[in-house]
Design brief:
With 210 residues, the chain is an alpha+beta fold. The protein contains 7 helices and 9 strands, in the order E-H-H-H-E-E-E-E-H-E-H-E-H-E-E-H.
Length: 210
Amino acid sequence: MPLTLLPASLADVPTFTSIYLSAFQDVIAHDCFPRTSPHIKEWWTSSNVDDMKNQASARFLKVVDGDEIIAYAKWNVPVKLGAETVLGGDDPDDMPVWPKDANVELCNEFFRHLARERKRIMGDRPHYYLEIVATLPQHQGKGAAGKMIRWGLDQADRDGLEAYVEASPLAAPVYKHYGWKVVADFTLKGRNHTESFMVRAPQQTLKDQV
């Protein structure tokens, strides 16, 4: 059955939490958010519901295979609110209140560094930010992630804007395939994890080339 890309709804969020916890198996994900704690699952669901309701820049997508949601993504798109352009994502000076049983010190160190690097690299330039893309392990490699990635890149190209993403060593080659380039790396001290910061310049659309 062909995969279908759709906008997400609040009813989808609990499924997104399960997908996230299944898809992200690296050492940072496990150390930050122990899978044995029910508070972790509750927090992820609550956070995504709040983002979907209240973040003007957040765009949640899902890919379905028949009636099953097999993947989701969160893009942050630039939104003009009065004189301000809202870019979404974490504020390095105002990190989330992490859930009970999370490794708060590690979460703050890791996610604050990611937020600071995005701010350093992108500044206040309007851009599209792929914050999360996750696919159930048994459905990986079937093109679900590509559909969600392409959605955001098409919007960025249409608007003539850059796209930004953070990537693990496993994910970086995928993003390079779509035109992203590594502009900086970060290795967390004492842990076997490196994160790459990647920027993609806007590309000409077929319409632009006519």
